[in-house]
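Trying the structure run again after the queue cleared.
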Amino acid sequence: MNNKLIALVFVFVLIGSFVVAEIELTIPFNQEFDLKRPCFNNETFCSAAAVCNVTIIYPDGSILTNNQQMTNQNSFHNVTLTNFNISQLGIMPTIVVCDDPGGAVNASGKDTFEIEVTGDGFKPNVFPIEFSIFILGFILIATGKFKEDLGFFVTFGGMILMVIGVVTLYPGYSGLNYSTLQGQVVGIGGAGVGFYFMIERFFSRDKQVDHFDQEDDGRFHDND
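Done. Tokens:
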């Protein structure tokens, strides 16, 4: 049992070791997203002649859009990113450059910002709520291991870990899902540990003996 508890502590420390930073814009992984940016010239909206181009760089340094022209919607310009474009978790540096030759002032400008892609599209937290659910599963398992009469806690805790492990893989949350090594480790590790403890109680030798003794009506014992 000590080895099992050590393994639980190791997984808990691993899950709690990921920290994220503040980002201006957060979008969901593998889902279509319409990027909109306002355009101003001399404190008014840009004219219909304004042209804005956007360059977006993937977290791994490759190019998502290379100076791609955005659609002029008068008060803003937009470009639609398909679900196939949003294929990497992490921070994407973005630059929008605009020229407005038809405005009150012939001007140009740029907007530099960062987009972060997360599994669920929500702004990352230093300690996501999913980690709290992981901890709950570990606590239930540990309680069931120390208190024999609460053995069903082990099964219930295992179910929790397995479900959250699967959710970690897909769709994911914060900077974790199946597309990252950390997401694979946490997701597969959590689901695997959860599955083990969920079925371990049913295949335990001691539990099988207890079950056999309860079902035995004396036919398998010699009467002296």
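Helices lie at 2-15, 129-146, 152-169, 181-203, 205-215. Worth checking whether this holds up in the mutant runs.
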